[in-house]
Specification:
Length: 222
């Protein structure tokens, strides 16, 4: 699955930029509050407008303080997947329960320096694990390959039936890095600059998906 990140889109033309990635599996929407991360983007009113303008399932990545208060609103608005950061959440399992009760999938994200192991049991409450492969806050950063160890560990647990999550990766995903991530077992690839920096974003989505499919077919574990 490919999820273009609208952080790299032209915010003055969000409806057109959303239409430009037709065929994408999810539309990744970065909500940043200027506190949890040193950048500020959009909030619920703009996400509601986006939701009413697209058929692509919307994947909200909340890089905000106090997701306990705000996350459920994105699920109630109709987001397909709502992800919160374990480093910001007060009661992550309650957040997941509320998101699911509102009809969305619940995601848990971990920053590059956050280990996976302490949160494995908690992940039983979630549908998605979002592994950050850059420090959250900005697009266009360089991929951090070390985080793939967390992808491999999560996929081993999934293969063993001990965990049931879709593994998503976010940050620095492009034609040079997507194959490595696919070989590690990533299910869903967020890509901002590699999609919106291309002349034809929809074609960029197709090309990234083809590369991930080919590389994923020869996975390290398979
Ligand atoms: O959440 C983030 C950054 O915090 C990402 O979603 C970026 O938007 C990905 O952008 P690229 O690294 O693909 O340019």
């Amino acid at each position: 699955m490919i999820a273009p990140s609208i952080l790299a889109a032209d915010f003055a033309r969000l409806a057109e930029e959303t239409a430009a990635v037709r065929g994408a599996d999810w539309l990744h929407v970065d909500v940043m509050d200027g506190h949890f991360v040193p950048n500020l983007t959009i909030g619920l009113p703009v996400v509601q407008a986006l939701l009413s303008n697209t058929d692509i399932p919307v994947d909200c990545h909340l890089m905000i303080e106090d997701p306990d208060r705000w996350a459920v609103g994105y699920a109630e608005a109709g987001a397909h997947n709502v992800t919160v950061h374990v480093e910001a959440a007060g009661d992550p399992s309650k957040i997941a329960k509320d998101i699911r009760a509102a009809g969305a999938r619940a995601g848990l994200s971990i920053k590059p320096g956050t280990p996976l192991e302490p949160y494995v049991e908690l992940l039983a409450h979630f549908d998605t694990l979002l592994v950050m492969s850059v420090e959250p806050g900005f697009g266009g950063q360089e991929f951090i390959p070390d985080v793939l160890d967390k992808v491999r560990a999560a996929k081993r647990l999934v293969a063993a039936g001990e965990l049931s999550v879709l593994v998503e990766i976010d940050g620095g995903i492009n034609a040079e890095t997507i194959e490595r991530a696919a070989q590690a077992g990533v299910d869903c690839f967020v890509a901002g600059s590699a999609v919106y920096g291309a002349d034809d974003p929809a074609e960029a989505v197709r090309q990234l998906r083809a590369m991930a499919d080919t590389a994923g077919a020869g996975r390290e574990e398979s």
